Amino acid sequence: MSVQDEIRLYLRARVALIVLVTVEEQRALDVLDEVRKGRDAEADLVLWDVADRFSSKAGRQLPDAADPIAALDKVKELALKAPARRDLYVLKDFHEFWGKDPRVRRKLRSLAQQLVYTGASLVVTTPSRTVPMELRDDAVVVEMPLPASDALRTALDTLIDDTKGVRSRLTPHGRARLAQAALGLTAAQAKRAFAKAIVRDEVLDDRGIDAVVAEKKAIIRESQALEFYPAEETPDDVGGLDSLKRWLALRERAFTEEAAAYGLPAPKGLALIGIPGTGKSLTAKMIGGLWRLPLLRLDIGALFGSLVGESEERVRRALQLAETVAPCILWIDELEKGLSGGDADGGTSQRVFGTILTWMQEKTAPVFVVATANDVTALPPETLRRGRFDDIFFLDLPTEEERREIISVHLRKRRRDPGAFDVYHLAQVSDGFTGAELEQAIVDALYHAFSEDRDVRTADVTAAVTRAVPLSRSQREVIERLRSWLREGRAQSASFAEAAQAEQAQVRLELS
Q1: CATH number of the CATH domain containing 465
Q2: Could you say which of 80, 113, 143 is where a domain stops?
Q3: Directed axis angle between helix 400-413 and helix 435-451, to 10°?
Q4: Each residue of 104-120: pLDDT tens digit?
Q5: Please, what sign has the CA dihedral across residues 481, 484, 490, 493?
Q6: What is the pLDDT of residues 347-364, one digit of tens each?
Q7: Is there a single domain that holds both residue 437 and residue 317?
Q8: Which residues on adjacent β-strands are paired with residue 229?
Q9: b/e for 96-118, b at 16 or more Cβ within 10 A?
Q10: Which of 182, 187, 406, 436 is 20 to 30 A from 476 (CA-CA)?
Q11: Stated pTM of the model
Q12: For the chain, how many structural domains are there in total?
């Protein structure tokens, strides 16, 4: 249902107070004007704000009102004087007044109750979803979504047609791709991004897509809770984890129209549980590159604000933005941090965490959630149940074969030929090392060789491995507790070798 249809439905139900939540004021007024015209050709759209006072779309002469109390009195006077008129009264930024003055809340509530018996309705436009307790029984909250790709395509076409001297080399398909790249931006932000691409390159072509994506990264970063990651990692950048890679490869075309026509639902998400440093975050980045989808990282810590209701508002805005950018991947790193506040923060962390879990269960937009966690014991049991995730994978300490792959990957990243090193020996001496620890050992070896003005050798890496104390030794009890979680059959192993070992252990247990 479109936002226009939702507002029309509430007006037909004689709802007298609608809170329209959006940062796009002009787009909201355009929507309300469209609703007003479709509702009654004689109806007027009356606007009020503290700077310009009353104004009328129909050009009517309206009384003056310099403050919110006087404005509500004038609305009451106009509406009750002609109860048959089906006017819409729009109060812009009225949240600034109802939060400070109890008289405004009382008068607004009384007016909403009186307007039920007339044809008029009040609409408050506000960027905040928070409504005073006194008004919640009389008001309905409507959130205006960010513009869809067809609306952005229309805005792009209009900009090209209206801008004198612009040269466009975009095909219809190219224009559609450019509009798709702008998903997640407001209409005004998208127009600025399009205009910036035109001015910078003096021509509109496929380079405009990169310009729009760069603009979107900056804007998404300003949302405080989301960060846009480039999809650069590939499966070749991740050593081992063959079982997990096969699972992902089978779903590589999951978000295509062909998959939907075949009857396949879009996958919901994946939980990656395991030992720190085993590649959970790297895997999340790799999925974006493999599936060629935008990757958004949700920063749990940045969701929490100091004001009442601010945290819940931030999480709703972040999730709405992710749905607008969809199809995309939403990476929630270290999910257990969402509960770190416990009861000490007045239950805010519980509410934020609950909002995320409810959204994961009920979302219909093609947003694939990749949630990582180190301490699975800190998560409530309902977190990992089916319906929120398609599967749960455990990332264990790498096997010897996987360590060979990981060492080779990191040598290649640093422009070294793995064939010049004894990777079999290095894999044997690094038993118990995570992927992150292996990478650091190679970096340490490079520093040592660089200090002696020579190239790095196998002996340098061996020495770095020998000096290091891996997590599997320093945190032996913690690691063993995590690995027992896998042995109990609570998750799939991300590695073929580990999966086979677990299966053999189960067979031996049954035979005994």
Answers
A1: 1.10.8.60
A2: 143
A3: 40
A4: 999 999 999 999 989 89
A5: positive
A6: 777 788 888 888 888 888
A7: no
A8: 295
A9: ebbeeeeebbebbbebbebbeeb
A10: 406
A11: 0.71
A12: 4
